Amino acid sequence: MIHLIKDTFVGRFLVVMILLGAAGAWYWTTVEPEISVEPNAPKQSVVIPGGASYNQVADSLIKHNLLRHKRLFLFFGKITGKEKTVHAGYFDIPTGLSTWELVHYMEKAPTKQVRVTVPEGLPAEKIAGIFARSLQIDSTRFMKLVADSAFVRELLGKEAQSLEGYLLPETYQLEWKTPPRQVLTFLVKRTLAIFEPDSVAGRLQEMNMTRHQLMTLASIVEGEAVVDSERTVIASLYHNRLRIGMRLQADPTIQYAIPGPPRRLLFKDLEYDSPYNTYKYKGLPPGPINNPGKASILASIYPEDTAFLYMVAYGDGSHKFSKTLKEHNYWHQRFNEVRRRERRKQRAAN
Fold this sequence. Notes:
By secondary structure, the chain is mainly alpha-helical. The chain has helices at residues 2-30, 54-63, 70-80, 99-108, 124-135, 139-146, 149-156, 180-193, 198-207, 211-224, 231-244, 251-257, 294-301, 325-349; strands at residues 43-48, 89-94, 113-117, 171-175, 310-313, 319-322. The protein folds into four domains: 41-111, Endolytic murein transglycosylase (Dna Ligase, domain 1), CATH 3.30.1490.480; 113-193, no CATH class; 198-308, no CATH class; 309-350, no CATH class. 51% of the residues lie in helices and 9% in strands. A two-stranded antiparallel sheet has the order 1-2. Strands 3-4 form a two-stranded antiparallel sheet. The longest helix is centred in the N-terminal third of the chain and has 29 residues, at 2-30.
């Protein structure tokens, strides 16, 4: 009798434990916790690389003081199947989550938007480096797409030979690891949006210029302009030269043509044989020499109405504009005199 009672008790106990275990397993695998995060709660930025194992995810969370119980995290991840749902990304994870909450949070954690600023006047190669560092993408792949004829045609038609010049400098909010093709498409479309208004199409027709020619001119204006207020004047000067068939003689085009990094130009550089050498050849070069900002593009579309044909650059980046060669030579001589005086002062001070 005693054995019968004991066996019955043990049997019932085991049944209860099995039911409790099943209920617990059901809860763990189907019921998600209510994760309430305060808007101003401190967060840690965590990068989960592509192909990372759940064990590596746990290590990253521990490294950023977000997780204390690694074994429990791995156990919960296994029984819930969440270990198979981990995804790569750049995440802002709130501190103070329990291990159980972390398991569920990491499954659906929103990828952090990365702020990327592209300065005006950079070549595509430099822009590729900025996005590679900020978004952790392949700069080589980025540059291959910049020159990919099929991709260029898809975005710009037949006129352009590359995307150089069409990567609009701005500040962008993009997801970490956004593919290069997607980044480039977004940047080019931002540039093309400037040309959408009918008024812009009318201006191009007025000036007898294609969009590509306008972008090429805008890149030269970008290369010359240091003072914002001078952009429309510089654009006017080059429009005037183009109209009368005068060579542009723009130093930035020589910088683009000659090999190596930017340096002070020498007289021999002006004879460097390249279609981009606007000292040697009339008209616009074959394409943009950098990626101009919106201000330079608009300045080239809507230049000031001037008769200027010449300019002298001062040491502070500003220019003195002239209508005649005689006037230009006068200001050029004056500037050289000032520069010589400054050099003498520096030598005397040393």
